[in-house]
Every structure is written in C-alpha cells, then in structure tokens.
## 1
Amino acid sequence: MILPPLIFVIASVIKSLIILFVLLTAVAYTVWLERKVVGHMQNRWGPTRVGPFGLLQPAADGLKFLFKEDLTPPHVYKPLFLAAPMIAVIFALTSISVIPFGNSISIFGYDIPFQITDVNIGLLMILGITSMGVYGVALAGWSSNNKYSLLGGLRASAQMVSYEIALGLSLVGVLILSGSFSLRTIVDAQGGHFWGFIPRWNIIPQFVGFFIYLMAAYAETNRIPFDLPEAETELVAGYHTEYSSMKFAMFFMAEYANMITVACLATLLFFGGWHGPLFGPPLLRSLLPLFWFAAKVFCFLFLYIWVRGTLPRFRYDQLMSFGWKFLLPLAIANLVATAIAVAW
Amino acid sequence: MNFHLILFLAFGAVCVGGAINLLAQRHPINSALSLIAVMAALAGEYLLLGAEFVAAVQVIVYAGAIMVLFVFVIMLLNAGEEEETKGSRVAVLFGVPGMLIGGVLMAWVVLRQSGTEAVPIGALPGHPADIAQLLFHDFLLPFEVTSILILIAIMGAVVLASKPEPMAGKVH
C-alpha cells in the first residue's frame, strides 16, 4: 500500500535520522575494532584505558578532534580546501540511502521498509555517488598546494577511476543473474537453497566476480594493500597532510563510511543480504533479518581489518598493472562466461 | 504550485547558474567544478522526467568519470588563473545581441512547434529494460559501430602517447 505524502515524509525523516545515527556509530566503532584487532594481531592490546575494553575510545577521539586547533595553512586555495572534506563526507554518507537492510515492518498499519528509499536503479545510484566521492580526495590534494598532497590526490583519482571499471564489470555478472538494478530484487532473487541445503547466494555462481569486487573495493576505499594515496612512508599523509582537527576527522569518517557501504553492497550482492535462518516468536522473526545483515557486514569489516594487518602495500606501478592487466580482463572474461551460461 | 515544478525550477536554476559561473570564473578548476554542478543538475532534471537510468548514467559517466579526468588534467598541469583581457569589441557589438536574438528565436520556435503542456512522468522510455531493448535490439548496429569508433579513438591515443623508443626492450 502506498503511504500518504505526509506520513511518507515523516517516515523518511525518522528513517534517515536513525540510519545516520547507526551509521556514524558504526563508523566510530569500526575505528575502535580496527585498532583493537590490529593491536591483537601485532601482539599489543590496542585501546584499553577509556572505558571497559577501551569501548569509550571513539567518544574520546571525537572530543579530541572537536577541541584540536583547526589550522588552515596560509598557502592553500581556501574555498576548495574547506569544501573538500565536506564533499568527501557528504557523498560517503549519502550512498547509504538506497541500501536496504531488511524486508519491512508494519507500524500503525503502514508498511515501512527497512530502507530510506527504494529506487529501481539503486545499484547505479550507489556507483554514481561513490564516483562523485573522488572529488573530495582529488580537490583536497590539489587545494592544499603541497607536493605530497598533490601526489596523493593524483594517485587517488587515477586509482579510483581505474578500479571503478573493474568494480562495475564485476557487478554486471550479478545483474545478469538477477535481471534488475534494484537492490531489493537482487536480494529477493537470492532466497532459497541450491539442492535444499546450500543457500542460493550469488557468491557461488559468481565467485570470480566476488574476488574482483573485493579487490576493486579495497582500491576504491584506499585501504591497504592499495592505500597509495596516503602512503605514509613516501607521502607524509597524502591528500590530507595539511588537514587538522575536524576537517581531518571528516576524511577519516568518509573512509570508514565508504568501507561500510562497500561491505553492505557485498552483503547484498553476493551474500544474500538479510536472508538467514528464521525461528522463534514473530517479533524475533521480524528482527532476525536485520541481525543477519549486520552480522554479514561485520564479517566484511573484519576481513578488511584482517587484510590490513596482514598484507604490505603495493607499489604504484604494480597497482596499475594489477588493475588494468589482470582484474579488467578477468572481469570481462567473467562477464562473457556468465552471459553464455545464462543464455544456455 | 506543485512540488514537481518547484524541483524543476530549482534544478534548472542550478544548471543555468552553473553554466554562467563556468564562464565567469577565472580559475580553470572552478570552471570544471561548475561544469560538474551543471551535469549533476541535469541528472536531477532527467530524474524528474522519470528517466532514472539516464540520470544515473549521466552522473556516473559525465560527472563521475569524464569530469574527474578534466580535474585530473587541470591538477597535473597546475593551470594558473586566466589572464584578464578587455575582450574584443566585435564580441560585444555582435556577439551579445546575436546571442539574445538567437535565444529569442529558439524559444519562439520551440513554443510554436510544441504544445505548452509538460511531459508527464514516465512518458519517455526510461526503464533500464526499455533502454536495453532500444540499444541492443532496435539500434544494435549503430550502437556497435559507435564502439568501433571509440576503439579507433583509443588506438589513436595510444599511438600518439607512445613515443618511438630507440632502445626497445628492458626498461626496468
């Protein structure tokens, strides 16, 4: 049933607020998780002082960012220097708006889906928004008027544009299987089981596509092993060298929000979204999908951190030849193979 | 006044404002950013027409990919501010009135030719399936020929970019 306009607006505002709150909290605790997990991998404790297990560390970090002196170096191009972190964080947070987290819930007789907005080109919209996110990094590097920042910005834009192609092509296999751009339809197509016990997730027919997606996603989010734009051994801190205080925190938030978006997308496209075993009373049944979704996203975030703790950084020429000479042909081969198999 | 019209006017204002700003700005990077704003606002107009796929492609291809290359080149060349000139007198004498007359003529023709009623949402084929049908069935040959054209352009770029190397072989 279609909601009346007023209810629709109210529901959308409430949903946006809730999702924004959850997302920002998730960003803060992903940072905590990363420090903790990488710490344990390197035989350290990670944050322990603020709260039990250092759980209040994100709050302390946030306060610190707020109260740090906000420096604007005199030689920067000011309008873009100020705009760049905002661009980065706005596009990073916007892309969550089309991601569905679960089916829908009935409140006061209205059917409210667990999603801010359901558009039938959801996947393309995410690709479009993330492709705009490049500007934050590129403009930050350029407007800082500093050679390290500029190199970081150039590396970031070249890397993101290159890997976007492989990323897009890796998704086409999933699109061929489900026949829709709508994320909800893609998830619905993954319900049920192969031969009665293996979940019908896209990862099984599309494991090559998933591998390409994973590699390209690391590069798109500038994470190790592809964090060349901020390689500290050669570029100080890359594109955000000149940033301090809350402006730096915005880049940080954008990076982690992008990680979460990429993890959500991987869950939706390859791991069946919110599908999982349902049991128990009706209330539990309606909330379990949310739990499965969150659990799958958590696994991806853990994988990200695990990879960070394990792999060294690529060289820039290795990054480019890996993207263009290996991932792209592999993605095209995967696409052709999938198309032939479906047409059969 | 309905909501749709307000949105149309808002996106239209961003479009025209961005285009004027593109010309008025001295620094190439500001001009490039204005062009991005124009592209994004155009995508908004396409969305209002119900052409969701075209809107998404507009953002991904133009605002997200082509303009990134523009910005990339501007950053790489470190292009400075444009030098200010008085402008040619010919441009002021003939260009501005010519533009006005051209604009008025075009508006007159458009208004005469078409009815004044707006295109309703979804009247144009905007669904991905419709566009796929058009591209890969009705206009398959032109579509594929275009791809060969682009391939030729890529090969041309490769030939231009690769310098003849006297010591061919090991570079590393």
## 2
Amino acid sequence: MAQPSHYPRMAIALLALIGLFDAAYLALERITGGTIVCPVGGGCETVQSSAYATLFGVPVAYIGVAGYAAILLSALLALNLDRIAGIPLSAVLLALGSIALLAGIYFSYLQLAVIGAICFWCAVAALLDLAIWIAAYLNWRAAHPR
Amino acid sequence: MSDKHTAAARPPRGRGTPAKPRGVPMPLFYALLVLITAGGVALLFSSANSRTTPTTGKTIVSSIPLDSLPARGSATAPVTVVEYADFQCPACGVFFKSLEPGIVKDYIDTGKVRFVFHDFPLSQHRNAIPAAEAARSAADQNAFWQMHDLLYARQAEWQDLADPTQQFVKYAQELKLDTAAFSQALASHKHQAEVLQARDASSHAGVDHTPTFTIDGKPYDMPDLRAAIDAALAAKK
C-alpha cells in the first residue's frame, strides 16, 4: 500500500488547533463572565446567551474544546502511528471529522433558521469543521485506495 | 503491498510500527504547532486581562431610535448621552451610586444633557432581562427612573434570586404603582421583546462591555464621562 501523504493529517492538526483556541475563547468568556469581542455580524451575545448554546446542560463551548482536542490528538497520533488499540487512525479521524462536520452544520442551521443571528466564532468553527472533514476524508481515501 | 525494491531503508511494517512521514521535516511542523499554541495562549491571557477593552476609535450607534428609549432631561438639551447598561452589572451599579447623582445634578437638571438608557442585558447575569422588563413595566406608569434607581440601589436583593418577580412587585408597591397592572405586564412579558431587541441592537452596534456611554456615537467609559460631556458642551457653544 502506498504511503498516504501526510499533508491531510498535518492540516487536520493545524485546523483542530485553531478550532481549539476558538472554542477555548468562548469557554473562557463564559467562565469569567466577560463580553465577547464580535468582529463581524454582531450576533455573538445573542447566540451565546440563547438556549442553544447549551447541549444537555453542557455549554457548547466546553464540548468544542474537548472535541477539537480529541481531533488534534488523533491527528498527531495519526502522523506517527497506523493504529491505536487496533483501530486504524484514518478511520478514527474520519469519524471525528464527520461528527465535527455534523455539529458545524447543525449549529449553523440553528443560527440562520432559528436564532436569527450569527456568532462570528461559531461561523469560524463551522468552516474549520468542513475543512477538517475534507482533510480527514482525503486521508481516509488515500489509506484505502480502491 | 509495500514496494520490495525500496524496502531497504524501511523497517518491516506491522501493527503499531511507526510510519514516519517523509518530505516535510516534521520538527518544523511541530515547531509551527508550538508557535501557534504559544500565540493562542498569549491571546487568551491578554483577552482575559483586558476586561474593559478601551473603546477609543469606534463608533457605536444603535439601530433603535433614541426617542423610543427611556430618557431623562430636557428634550432640547445640547448634548445627548446614551448609557448602554445591564441592571445586574456591578460596574453599572457603581456608576449609579458614585457618578450618576453628580451627573444628574450638574448636567441633567440644568438642561445641559439629555440622558438615554439603552438596555444591554448580558448573558452571564441571570436576572438582567427580568429586571429590564420590570423597569420598562414601571415605565408604563411613568416610573421608569424611580424603578431604575431602586433596582440599582438594591441589586444585592434580587440579583441571585431564582425568580425575582415577587421582589420586583414589592418595589412596585414601594413606588406606589398599580401593582396589578405591573404584575400583569411582568407575567405576560409585555416588554421582553423590546429588551431583547435592545440587547441585540447593542451587540450589533459593537458595545462590548457595560456600562458604555456614547455621545454622538463616540464611546466613553465611566472615568472619562464628565470630561467628555464638558468637551461636547464646549464644542456646541
């Protein structure tokens, strides 16, 4: 089997790192009670104070921190190992990337169709999720050539 | 299957055997990750430390017409000051207790300033929206500023209550308002939409902390307010 290019995995690590800081910023402001700097769109406070900013009692920002950390860790592992506990890391990355993509679509839908306001930081995260999924898919395809 | 003729430099593959990527030097990549991490952490720290970011240079104008908002002072006053505030915010309470009385006496009562109150309830203050609704419900009976003053003077009494409604009704009683009408307005959330609209407009206009004061769209913080009012008055002479 040809050695898959490592660029998609490196890209995922970079994207996940940026996503981690994006989520960490929102989590930090939630913990310290500060106001969010909202560079574009002006809907940050509206979105963050809506009921949809919490999922099953957990602030979405915290879930984001955990999620991006998991993706970052998996990508770094995938750059050095083929499998973890017997599971191919390319599959792990694709699975995590798919969850991230679904989350990005879901939260974007909520903002556009339900809340009626857009939070800049959520929009950035959604774009990162899409890019992560594309890279994870490319990586998985390269590891499983037909 | 791996290419046999280039296998010389490659160790046999198996489970868990490291598959080292070739091409781009990995140390460079990891160094980049560390750099980004350091930069990100520094940014987070600086944002955590600069609680009230200096608002110089921005223009803040709400989409809500100022004459539809609660205001005090002469309608023909030369200078209009807009306060973006949250009833539960401690700094706004400080403004009320320490600075506002002086401003009322020296500028509002003398006809120099018209002072407009623009709601900006923040998400981390659980009772900020109900308090804003209470103030607007009192406004129905021409008692906005009296309720505003009571709410700020007694922040500690209502800010942590699970349901502050009864406390607000007590304030309405104290102000000798029609408590039935007041309770009805609160229970039916008659003014909630306006409060939320004001909050969204504040957010949209770029207000990022409370209290923020604007004169002709220029934002000022509490310590700079009096000087800013004086400068604006001098400019209008």
